């Protein structure tokens, strides 16, 4: 069927179904760029979340770590510490420390990790306590730490604090 607007121009006539399909196609072409941008956004979001979770994995801290720490107090000598970190029977990280210090003897430490933050805290047989708190580097092989020693009845070091690093061997 054809419809004549003028004698020289003939335009095909459309029935109601064809007109609805053309209108639908026209509307779809208007929203198609929005769907494309929405898909691009979700693709980016998915890759960003995946990359973020890959960076959040906790490094394997089990093994031997050692380093030197320097007190903020001039009258306290620097000390070297070696910590062997393992899992206890309950699956928690623990460390056995051996060190040369005027203030501390060998310590049993509990190790707590949250993201890139780490805390090693415990006491020696005389009741002197130490807490190392800091961060794990991106390679999982270097701990940047500050420490606080709280004295006990032994009176060796009533309080001391300082900084240092421990590297994984």
Shape: globular
Q: How many domains make up the 3D coordinates?
A: 2
Share of helix, binned: 10-25%
Mean pLDDT across every amino acid position: 77
Low-confidence stretches: 48-54
Largest sheet: 8 strands, antiparallel, barrel
Tally of separate helices:
1
Roughly how many Å apart are the termini?
88 Å
Q: Using DSSP, what is the number of strands? A: 10
Series of H and E elements? EEHEEEEEEEE
**CATH architecture descriptor text of the largest domain:** Beta Barrel
Topology-level CATH name of the largest domain: Lipocalin
Kindly provide the name of the CATH class of the largest domain: Mainly Beta
CATH-defined superfamily of the largest domain: Avidin-like
The assigned structural class equals alpha+beta
